[in-house]
Amino acid sequence: xxxxxxxxxxxxxxxxxxxxxxxxxxxxxxxxxxxxxxxxxxxxxxxxxxxxxxxxxxxxxxxxxxxxxxxxxxxxxxxxxxxxxxxxxxxxxxxxxxxxxxxxxxxxxxxxxxxxxxxxxxxxxxxxxxxxxxxxxxxxxxxxxxxxxxxxxxxxxxxxxxxxxxxxxxxxxxxxxxxxxxxxxxxxxxxxxxxxxxxxxxxxxxxxxxxxxxxxxxxxxxxxxxxxxxxxxxxxxxxxxxxxxxxxxxxxxxxxxxxxxxxxxxxxxxxxxxxxxxxxxxxxxxxxxxxxxxxxxxxxxxxxxxxxxxxxxxxxxxxxxxxxxxxxxxxxxxxxxxxxxxxxxxxxxxxxxxxxxxxxxxxxxxxxxxxxxxxxxxxxxxxxxxxxxxxxxxxxxxxxxxxxxxxxxxxxxxxxxxxxxxxxxxxxxxxxxxxxxxxxxxxxxxxxxxxxxxxxxxxxxxxxxxxxxxxxxxxxxxxxxxxxxxxxxxxxxxxxxxxxxxxxxxxxxxxxxxxxxxxxxxxxxxxxxxxxxxxxxxxxxxxxxxxxxxxxxxxxxxxxxxxxxxxxxxxxxxxxxxxxxxxxxxxxxxxxxxxxxxxxxxxxxxxxxxxxxxxxxxxxxxxxxxxxxxxxxxxxxxxxxxxxxxxxxxxxxxxxxxxxxxxxxxxxxxxxxxxxxxxxxxxxxxxxxxxxxxxxxxxxxxxxxxxxxxxxxxxxxxxxxxxxxxxxxxxxxxxxxxxxxxxxxxxxxxxxxxxxxxxxxxxxxxxxxxxxxxxxxxxxxxxxxxxxxxxxxxxxxxxxxxxxxxxxxxxxxxxxxxxxxxxxxxxxxxxxxxxxxxxxx
Length: 841
What we know:
The chain is mainly α. The protein is built from 32 helices and eight strands. The relative contact order is 0.05.
């Protein structure tokens, strides 16, 4: 026995007969124009005088036929034993239903044909076997219960078509029985052609039904991801390869990309049934914000991989909005566009956020009752209007809740005032009250002390007029402690943001605010320290420092110039960050957030862009092509080094001030002793004083003391002091201390100027206009010589300038030391001369 398969020309969808070869039987007028309720055609009555002709377009449908096997019976060929056409017609209704009969028996996925039949009859039976095998396979597929809701809808739609096919078979069976009865009752040799029913006419009558069965079989094959031979076992498998939106897109491809009107009509008819579960899920999503998708067939899915409770900072609104639901592009059916799907996704996610994140489930329920409409396939106008109205209403409600109920803009303004140091009086009071505490080691700081100082700064500044809800969120805390740190290094402010505002002020945003605050706090600290030292030196110049000007006046002139230079640098840096960066970014944020059609995603993206702008430009991070370059300058590290240099210079100036005060105190004590002793009638200076301080200008001292005694009306608030000579061990130690202070101040000032030159050189070649303008403002009078890294000529010039500056400073110091030595020598000579005159007397 050899197996006979369907020929290749049949698998391409070609027909055995043309329209001109058909000789339809007459049928009754009542049945000639009728079609079945579900679309498959009814068999015409043989008494109808009008012929039944098929459309030529259906003849050219490029669909592949099924590849079921048809096997001949194993008996040797014997023409006398071959069944007649009447016997085959009698068995044909059973064969078309997939049932075995006397002459045509099924075995699994094949049909056995008697081998004694002539070739034309076998060719006709090949054609009639295709719908039989397709029906047999599809009926088993329909009876299975696996798959999702859309898959079950496909089974239901195919079941409807199969019932229509059975109606066709029933009509055909009635025609065959009537023809056979006429054949038995008629006298003589009446052929089947005269009776009106033949195998060829059965082929013509079942051709359109065969095309429908073939089309449904191809859909099932592609849904399984297979285009090979279809078996009953394959069709009974669940639709694991394609489901939901993918399955809808598959069926819709036949309606949208096929030129055959029959295929288009058939696919559209299937889509009406298949898309019902999809539109039900869509309806619940856009009106209730709930996802009713037990088989994961919708293009929105719940993200179950993220543990919402593992990270407490990602809980609440952030998790509901960012992590709870995701959009799956592969599940978006082709009956809707990508933008339409994103709008649907945003509507449902917003409703779900309003219900669970904002706690406004009552509004969601009222919105669902008042706005819900029935959605179905083909009603595009209703679908678009429903989506647009739901989108506008949902977005308007969500923005209203964020602005009015949860005070989003008020809290963003508070973050700007307190964490970005926009509230100047509050920051000044806080820094002044905390200065003494933060100078101590970090491990000696206590949170209750910091909190008390924070409340003091709030009560004594304009911050007291902010709402209580804003003030209770502001808190002072300490960062992680490290060895050797002081309070300035670990102090920080914290602004707590609760749900649902944490969907915008995310944990990442809080870290960015903290990063900017820590940098601005360091800059403010340097400004505060330099300002305190500047005020002390300027007030001391009229008192203490003026009294010792003969010794340290040149040092103080250089120190005040260095402090003024550093204050200018810090002031320009602060102005750039607070006004050019933060204020400009704040205006852009408000403009983006107050657009009429803004969504929550727009608010989140605008706030994220605002933070990225102030962290990049405020911390002087490189931008453009330099951001990814390994040789890009690290402006943050340069600024931190400059700030450390300024604090070190401030400490050196404070040491010089302490030295000047000590010098003033020694001179004041000596002048008081001389005045007291002179008033008592004794020598003003004793040998002990000479050994301790050295003898210098004793006659001038006596004259000043007598003048001070005799003339009390013109006395100065600061008594005249004696310049102390550099004799003795104490004087030598003081000279060494002063020399070391001068060297430290000079080296720090030189290092500061060199680092500023490098910073300005890097800023000059940044693509950002504001960063380049910062370098211009800092060097508005060309006092610096900017040096670009990698430029040998500029570095050489800078080094030459630095060496020239150091050489001038060394020459100036040598001149000062020479003048001091001449002054000391002249004083010693005068003392010896006064001593010789005393001995002669």
